[in-house]
TrEMBL record:
Signal as UniProt keyword: yes
Record-linked NCBIfam families: 3A0109s03R
InterPro entries assigned to the protein according to its UniProt record, in alphabetical order: PhnD, Solute-binding_3/MltF_N, TAT_signal
Gene field: phnD
Keyword Transmembrane helix: no
Limits of the Solute-binding protein family 3/N-terminal domain: 71-305
Protein name as catalogued: Phosphate/phosphite/phosphonate ABC transporter substrate-binding protein
Pfam families found in the cross-reference section: Phosphonate-bd
Keyword line: Signal
Family membership noted in the UniProt record: Belongs to the phosphate/phosphite/phosphonate binding protein family.
Coiled coil: none
Signal peptide: 1-33
Amino acid sequence: MMKTFLASRRSVLVGLAATVAGASLALTGLVHAQAQDCPRSPQMDERFCDRDGDLVADAPEDPSEWIDPDTLIFAYTPVEDPSVYENVWAEFLEHLAEVTGKNVEYFGVQSNAAQLEAMRAGRLHVTGFNTGSVPLAVNAVGFRPFAMMASLDGSFGYEMEIIVRADSDIQTLEDVRGRQMAFTSPTSNSGFKAPSALLQAEFDMIEGRDFEAVFSGSHENSILGVVNGDYDVASIANSVLTRMDARGAVNKNDLRSIYVSQTFPTTGYGYVYNLKPELAEKVKEAFFTFEWEGTKLAEEFGKSGEEQFIPITYKEYWEVIRQIDEIQGVEYRL
């Protein structure tokens, strides 16, 4: 069931409140770069400016630095089978092409690293970054998120779950000691950063010392790996598990959850910072005017209660994710 985002976004995970309360707020304070007219967060790449203090890169002031490609390249977050989601997004991409007047191509990324590099290199213009990757994308490659999926009543979010096979002898997080635990990628919130913070803060369990970490590449891979006995335990986004169960890829009854987190924001959708402003506005228009009813997008994401795009701001909605990163000393550098 879709959950509403917790009212207190300053809570990171149960048991971390005291740590968060004492954490530095340096990420939200702007500092001046070498050029005094180009303020930005200390974590933001020196190529970018943030004059309005919204923590995302401004569009260049010089129109000669804007890009106006004949073909817009779109990518969804890395998944087990990109071709499946190319079909899911097909109707939306037709709508995006109609609204923007551009050709639109789907780019099936294989990893978060490939997605980040593609945007930094100018080969990716519009995309959805997974929750944990959004801060890195914003600060390192100039990603400007503006939308997120939500239910019709405006509620949104997913929980991080730590799962095992239903017949596993692992009953609690303490039982993870000495086992192999699957994560998705180092940039993933529910697939790595949040569970790592939880295990260290509440159980003094550190990867490499108390358990072995492996990276599967995606939530789908982690889920299937636990089902098939390849991994003892895995940390995943439960919205992905819900969709896989609904389409028959797995049976939820074959799995058991030993931990469920607070609610986190979902994939952030946006565009690269130097997209021509008029074109960027058309991209935003396409997201908010897309008619979901009867589409493959609704069929797939409706399984986890997502039925529309809603406007978001990085500064507000990703505060809890930035706090998790700050506790772990994450730097937004590629």
